[in-house]
Design a protein that fits this description.
With 482 residues, this protein is of the alpha/beta class. It is built from 15 helices and 25 strands.
Length: 482
Amino acid sequence: MDAIYQAGCLVAGTWLTDGPAAERTGPYLRRTVSRARTATPDDITRALAYAGPAAGAVARLAPATRAAILERGAAEVTARGEELARLLAVELGKPVKDGRGEVLRVADTLSVSAAEARALGGEVLPVAGWARGVGNTALTCRAPAGPVLAITPFNAPANLLAHKLGASFAAGNTTIVKPPPQAPAASTELVRILLDAGMPVEAVQVLHGGADVGARLCAAPEIAVVSFTGGVSAGAAVARAAGPKRVLLELGGNAATIVCEDADVAEAARICARTGYSNSGQSCISVQRVYVQRGRFEEFVAALTAEVKSLVVGDPLDPATDVGSMVDDDAAERVVRWAGEAAGQGAAITTGGARSGAVMEPTVVSAPPADARLVREEVFGALVAVLPYDGFDEVIEACNSSRYGLQAGLFTHDVRRIVQAWRELEVGGLVVNGSSNFRLDHVPFGGVKDSGIGRESPRWMIEDFTVTKTLLLRGLSIWGEQ
């Protein structure tokens, strides 16, 4: 794939390719792989003006019509999945087998969004249960909230766009998409696939650009809901710019996985190795901190190190590759620097610790101090830290010491520990006998503390992308009148 993908802006039903552009250099290929037509102030003005009439056009589509379009979109994604996976590989350095996995999730997410569109409805309220309600009837329905702004991240640009755009369209909204500058081609291609599947042009616009474009869109009164996935500081800026409108934030993580003394250590090490370095660890729920009961600590470190050394590192377009490159050289250098800092504080690097360009060697850091940056902050890279613990109460406290609270993992067969962890861990989700890095796209996903506001996955996103409208019928009752 030597051709440069031209990612246009879609504004008011027209693809724009001429004008200012930004080039994306593939972090592994080290050449220009895509060129995005960046949005101008005039483009933004036109897109916002178009959003109002477009919202009405999409809202008039029956839920069955929206669902059928999303189902065709899922089928089109499956049919054209190899093309999409290769775009993810060249733009991001994501191994093509991980890209294929993301494509499968895109198809599932669109199918789930279709099912949720078919389930849209409301309820008859029990107003006659109170004296003032006698003789009346009240009903509710879920109505489209209005134009949605979807700001998507680079690490899973296709599937997270599918979540936002799929749920927004299922709810009956129009959507303005602001893709990540690192993945304009993959994002644009998914929108094209959905349009080819029959999504009306009124349903989506695409504006490429940086934080300035996002900030102006967030502040626009024409936007009803902002859905953002990205870092904490950027999320705070989004919230400030958006002001008093609905804002959904899926932010960072510092995911902890606990390995208890009754766990299958070999299996836990295998799972942590496979899920700690997929996408070079660039996932908000990637395994970052593994707390192992002290009696099994050395055994686990040895097993994890062996598993990590077996990972295939290299060309993301090679189907055998497990770990490709990080998003850019600076990201890889930061992880190397943090590993070195921990080693200087007494930790042991049992494998990895170096980089070649944007390719970070999968790194295991054993027994770093609790105040090391790779323990306190979000690494978002190909590094896993392993720390010993003694008591279960102690490890719960250690996990909760982070300012993040997205998802955690727990390896144990003790139901009492499972219930305690579910009750006491300050996270949005807990995976038992699996690592933190596992997600089902039809299950609610989101965090607490600095990990964000709201829940993703189509059913829960549709709740935020719609408003409850009430109908009161005075003097007309299905319950009786006295």
